[in-house]
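Lab notebook: predicted structure, single chain.

Context: the supervisor wants predicted structures on file for every construct in the current expression panel, including those that have not yet been purified. This is the next one on the list. No modifications to the sequence; it matches the entry in the shared construct table.
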Amino acid sequence: VAVLPQNAAYVIYTSGSTGRPKGVLVMHRSVVHLAYSQRRRLEHLPGSRVLQFASLSFDTSVWEIVMGWIRGATLVLASKEQMMPGDPLTALMNHEQVDIATLPPSALAALHAASLPSLKVLISAGEALSMALVSPWLDGRTVINGYGPTENTVGAAIGEIARNETINIGPALPGVSLYVLDTALQPVPVGVAGELFISGSGLARGYLDRPALTAERFLPNPFGPPASRMYRTGDLVRYLPDGRIEFVGRA
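Prediction complete. Output recorded below exactly as produced.
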């Protein structure tokens, strides 16, 4: 069977903030785009032993899998019990010498930075990150804040975290464009909050058997080439003066 870039690679269900599950159709080309975007933005990082922390029912697992594939790295698998944040996960990561991991803030809260000496790169994603939580992890390792809806194939932007700076969701990944717009879909000035829209190679095809919802969330992109689309995230953000983006909340 010939597999084309525009064919669906997987359907993953997400409820977002609505509580009503909807299936997102992600194409093969979008997954490949994610892999090469990671390589371009994270190629200076070690990543030789990548933790597979997320369940396959959560799209962060795709981020972890392709991170290993694109580097020829080792993907560290374990049982649900070994992945329990706290002593079990600490023991696993130390035994397997994991040096890159993607963990949500709720998991970080159950771990101690000093107890994971082999961890060189920490990516936090899935929830809002606070400086109070992340501060102990900044010594001697690279810490990145990841942002992206399922509808943009896991990731849209990553921001490196530094002490005494505003936590940001970073600039866009390569091949992704971010627009901060008002209710009339016009760009807002730097520092002014607006809704985040995403376009580029990572966009999903749409929602499975939900054409009306697809049309509502995936809009024609007036800022891009003809026939291009942009995804309405429902997230409020603002541009910082240096070009990075700060997450404000849900619209």
